[in-house]
Amino acid sequence: MSAAHWAGPLQGVRVLDFTRVLAGPAAALALADLGAEVWKVEPPGTGDDTRLFPPFREDVSHYFLSVNRGKKSIVIDLKTEAGVALAKDLAARCDILIENYRPGVTDRLGLGYEALSAINPRLIYCAISGFGMTGPLRDRPSFDIVLQAMSGALSVNGEAGGAPTKLGLPLGDLVGGVNGPIGILAALYERSVTGRGRLIDVSLLDGMFGMLGYLAQLAFFTGKDPQPQGSQHPNLVPYGTFPARDGSIIIACLTNGFWARICNALGMPEFTSDPRFDTLERRHDNRSEVNELIATVTRTKTVQELVDVLVEHEVPHAPILGIQEALSQPQAVARQMVVETDHEVLGRIPIVNRPIKFPGDDQPMPAAPPVLGQHTDEILRDVLGLTPEQIDQLRNTKVVA
Questions:
Q1: What structural domains does the chain harbor?
Q2: What mean pLDDT is reported for the chain?
Q3: Looking at the whole model, is its pTM more than 0.85?
Q4: Does the annotation mark 173 as catalytic?
Q5: How do the residues of the chain divide into helix, strand and coil, expressed in percent and rounded to 5?
Q6: Cis peptide leading into 170, omega within 30 of 0?
C-alpha cells in the first residue's frame, strides 16, 4: 500500500480492548500507535470511567483523551446475553484481546481465555491486573500509588531525610502499557510459528519490581534499603539538581571522564585530580563537598549560561522544564511529538504523537480519541455484517448504544 495508507507495522491486526482507566488503555494505545485496529468496548451510559475525570472541555475529559488516540469506540452491555454474544463474535475476528478487570471477572462473563480460545485458537489474550492471576493478593484492588508503595519504588522517591513521596508519573499503571505490549508482540511472533495464541498474565506489581533495576541489586549487595536521595544518584556524584541565578539545572556525572569535563566547564580544572574527588568512590564519600563546590559556581550563572558552557564541554545536563515548555522545545518540535487532529466534539485539538518512529515510511496522523460509541454502527456493520434493522433492534433492546 502507499505510504499515505500505511497504518504501521501492525496494520491488519485487530485488537478487542476491554480495558478502562490507565494500565489497560495504555497497553492498547501502544498497539494502536503501531498500526493495529483497536476496538474499545465500553459499557453503556458513562463508558470508560475516565470519561468522568475532570477537568473537562465541552464535557470531554482530558484524562480519556490522553490514552485513547487512534481507537474506535463501541458500546456493548456485557451484562446481557446478547452483549456477550456480540463480544464473542468480535473476539472470533480478532488477533488480540486485552482486559484489565480483576482476575476471574471475564470468566464469570463468559469472556475468559478458555471460552474465547475455544472459539478462536489464534487469539492472544492479555490479562492485566494489579497483582496478577496468582498469589494471595490476586483479588485485591490496586491503584498506581498502591503499586508504587508495595513495590518499594515510593520508598526511594523524595528528598534525602524527608518522607518518601509518590512519583509524579503514574508508573504503577503505565508499566502495564510497557509490559503488556511486549508480551503481546512476543506472542504474536510465536503465533506466526505455532499458529496458536496464548494467555498472557501481566501483573503491575511484577512490572514495578522489574523497574527497580539497579536499586534492587544494590539492596541485595549491601543488605540495606536504598533511601530517598532527591534528584541525586545513590552512588554517582555529582548527579542531580544545582542552583542557578535564575532557576535550577541538572548535571550528571557518570564516569571520571565526565568529572574532568565538569571541572573544566565550570572553571575549576584543579579539582580534576584532587585526591578527594578523583574516583567515583571518593566523590561518593565526599558528596556534600562535591555538591557545594559545584553549587558555588552554578549559583553565579544563569541557566542559559550554564547550558551554553556545558554543551561546549559535552557534559550531560538539562534545564528543568515544565510540561508546556518541554513539549514546545525544539527537539520535541523536530520529532513532531505534538500534532493536531480532528475530534468529533472539540474540533481541532493538540495531542501527544506516537513515541516510536519508522524512518522511510510515514504513518497518517493519529485519529482523535473517540466519543462514546462513535464506531458502534461501523463495527457492527462492517465487521459482523449486521443490517441496519438488526443494529436498530440491538439498540432498542439496549444491548448496544
A1: 3-211+355-396 (3.40.50.10540), 239-320 (3.30.1540.10)
A2: 94
A3: yes
A4: yes
A5: 40, 15, 45
A6: no
